Amino acid sequence: MSVIEKQSVAEIKARNKELIAEVLKVYPEKTAKRRAKHLNVHENGKSDCGVKSNIKSIPGVMTIRGCAYAGSKGVVWGPIKDMIHISHGPVGCGQYSWAARRNYYIGTTGIDTFVTMQFTSDFQEKDIVFGGDKKLAKIMDEIQELFPLNNGITVQSECPIGLIGDDIEAVSKVKSKEYDGKTIVPVRCEGFRGVSQSLGHHIANDAIRDWVFDKLPADAAPRFEPSDYDVAIIGDYNIGGDAWSSRILLEEMGLRVIAQWSGDGSLAELEATPKAKLNVLHCYRSMNYISRHMEEKYNIPWCEYNFFGPSKIAESLRKIASYFDDKIKEGAERVIAKYQPLMDAVIAKYRPRLEGKTVMLFVGGLRPRHVIGAYEDLGMEVVGTGYEFGHNDDYQRTAQHYVKDGTLIYDDVTGYEFEKFVEKVQPDLVGSGIKEKYVFQKMGVPFRQMHSWDYSGPYHGYDGFAIFARDMDMAINSPVWKMAKAPWKQAPKPLLQAAE
Amino acid sequence: MTQSAEHVLDHFELFRGPEYQQMLANKKKMFENPRDPAEVERIREWAKTPEYREKNFAREALTVNPAKACQPLGAVFVAVGFEKTLPFVHGSQGCVAYYRSHLSRHFKEPSSCVSSSMTEDAAVFGGLNNMIDGLANAYNMYKPKMIAVSTTCMAEVIGDDLNAFIKTSKEKGSVPAEYDVPFAHTPAFVGSHVTGYDNAMKGILEHFWDGKAGTAPKLERVPNEKINFIGGFDGYTVGNIREVKHIFEEMGIEYTILGDNSNVFDTPTDGEFRMYDGGTTLEEAANAVHAKATISMQHYCTEKTLPLIKNHGQEVVSFHHPVGVTGTDAFVMALSRITGKEIPESIALERGRLVDAIADSSAHIHGKKFAIYGDPDLCLGLAAFLLELGAEPTHVLATNGNKDWAEKVQAVFDSSPFGKNCHVYPGKDLWHMRSLLFTEPVDFLIGNTYGKYLERDTGTPLIRIGFPIFDRHHKHRYPVWGYQGGLNVLVTILDKIFDEIDRNTNVPAKSDYSFDIIR
């Protein structure tokens, strides 16, 4: 399907610009003006991608974005396994996000671990009218009675909480006192706050600062003997086991991982993190806030890394090692050398099947840029990318370190735009989410979900890259795509019925 | 290192290797501040006891693992059942991302829906501008024939008035004045997704029949011989609606399916994305007022819709998700009575085949105990089917079931000697069910995908029937209604029973004398 490789960069740029102009025609004038700022063609040497970001989605356009609650409960807090996270408000938010994100963990669910459970206050009309604080207090009592081994509670606010004037902070304080200083964290992540999941990440980060870090007794003895090599993994949600296949590399190079934020994480790990010597940050978007805070307050440096694909992994291991002594630097080299034969074998097997294939991405967090290197390791080319809820600092990182000249950039893409772009660019693979998956597969375009790893994974680390390569191969080279067209029918172009 | 290019290990096997196992054990011991394993074991055992059950059932405020979703999900489900209709949910945008994901994960199909993307300023000033812009954008971009509006709880809490907002939007030119924009208020803090289905269906019929929010004359009913059919919120809509059409056609009945989403949730992969497909045409929706009668397959999905229809002069008949012989008998006999059409031999044959299958297999089901949970109507239909198989629906639970529902379930129990020791649990959740399964064990559990946690914890084998089914594929393509649907349900149950018998008799030289080749 690749048409792009035969074109020069200038031709691609012209084609992409034309494509942007074309999709904008569908909008009413005001909307076209607003959307135009989110679409661009990347120019080499620019410091960012030339798009506006982190501003309100336009009503009615079918944005792919979620909400602040999704950012807090779904992303940051939900994976903390030994705490109970109450979806506070009506039943839906907790129901739709119940166990949907594949945050792997080890623990006895329902007894000392609670990640794949849905705790909700299931608001009824009377709770809206009279307020839900009393109910919330009672819920906490019932949790204490029925789930006595929980190590803490968070209150994940849904839309109504902030609108009806409930005081979840007061309830949390009272109950914390009643239960001997138990960690109870109110989170103001109502879905209408901000413009996407992103503010929910920030609010959740701040809640850890205010209700976990700031409650720590200054003289508390550490639960373990500190070492010079203690690091915390920040911003890995252990989707399909990502944090595990990352942790193993850090440990093999001689570091000690004292905390995982937040995939397979625990309250004790959150509390121990201010003792780290370095915070290593994978998802910058969702956890840069707490990293900056720890830098300011506890003098812990932080270092962004990228564990997708061998090129970026080696670069990242060396970067992380540069914060430590020669022992760790040697450890990094040893790890890189150890896995080189595996990487060579994976690339030898899959690259010939994937060489020159083109990819369009639209994902959240770090992935619109971080996975580009992994595709390039397989000889593939990312020809379009965009962030669901990125900010300008994401687009700066993308422009300066990842994308090629002429790449199509689309921020907070709408359903219509994405379909049009894919229809015209005709990539060999689209990587996006569950809402997009079936749209493109119907069009006959191979697809991988790049939020959930399409129920596979891990994709992080060297072990993960082998799986990543296998999965991209199985998506692109599946025999099914040859059957989409009935042999007796003329080859149809992917169509957008709705838009004609 | 266990990973290899030759045989790539993913999460199923990778982490079972010794390096990872050692790493995870160290993590737990050193950094997680874990509970004493003996204490974990003690609580795990305690949570199985009658004492725990009593505390669990005394819960008044906390809900754990509910089996229900919220209203707008049902509204979106209804909207896509009408020709080229775009669901538009007024309120926060995150909700719409959730509905779309939820439906896509069940049907493995695209799910198109837009939001008015209200944020903090709209919370203060109201969402009128979001409605005005949203309708204009959706209309221009996605060229729907109709936009069906519902609400998230945010818009409901601040009190946005859909009728007035839509009117104003039309005045501002967002969509043409005569363009169809039916609406329904669907507060998430009232009822569940089945309530949302009801409100949205009522909203659409009201729109077409009662003067399009004051912009057109009300329709004058001119009775004809047609029958309207409403399926209700149904995870099997693809298979079920086709089965129902087959029955209507066999009987020679002219019909209108109201909210026919059987095609939009079952589009082919042939190179074209169909954002809209099939559906009740708007003309059919309007003309449905003239029908002789309306049949609802799920009473609790149409509690407000049916009175509206009745008030227009039609006979209304409702069922509780009939499954099996007796339930389907009642359905086809009602069709026959209303239309005066005889039940053809072809349908009698289908019936005979289902009875035949039950006769062949009932020895394996007879006397087996089942726990069932799901939407209220589904529970009623399944409980009745189990009773006619000679099985006992020991625990029947619906988080969104009320007192009225519980009485109906009790009446079903009372109708059969096999219902004697059966109990109904309205308004309870799956954590209650967990206690029931520990303290009063049953042979099988029937429920949706979330039942797999109960299967893991209690060892009760799960038979997946319900919504959502995320972890098994394509079940929604097969009907559970009609005699042919009853056969599918029977086979689904039997497959699990036989798998369990084999699983429990396969130890060589211990139990495998019963590992029979013929059953």
TrEMBL record, chain A:
This is Nitrogenase protein alpha chain. Tetramer of two alpha and two beta chains. Forms complex with the iron protein (nitrogenase component 2). This molybdenum-iron protein is part of the nitrogenase complex that catalyzes the key enzymatic reactions in nitrogen fixation. GO terms for molecular function: nitrogenase activity. It comes from Bradyrhizobium aeschynomenes. It is an enzyme of class 1 (oxidoreductase). Belongs to the NifD/NifK/NifE/NifN family. CDD domains: Nitrogenase_MoFe_alpha. Residues 67-476 form the Nitrogenase/oxidoreductase component domain. Keywords: ATP-binding, Iron, Iron-sulfur, Metal-binding, Molybdenum, Nitrogen fixation, Nucleotide-binding, Oxidoreductase. Pfam families: Oxidored_nitro (PF00148). It catalyses: N2 + 8 reduced [2Fe-2S]-[ferredoxin] + 16 ATP + 16 H2O = H2 + 8 oxidized [2Fe-2S]-[ferredoxin] + 2 NH4(+) + 16 ADP + 16 phosphate + 6 H(+). It comes from the Bacteria. InterPro entries: Nase/OxRdtase_comp1, Nase_comp1_asu, Nase_comp1_CS, Nase_Mo-Fe_asu.
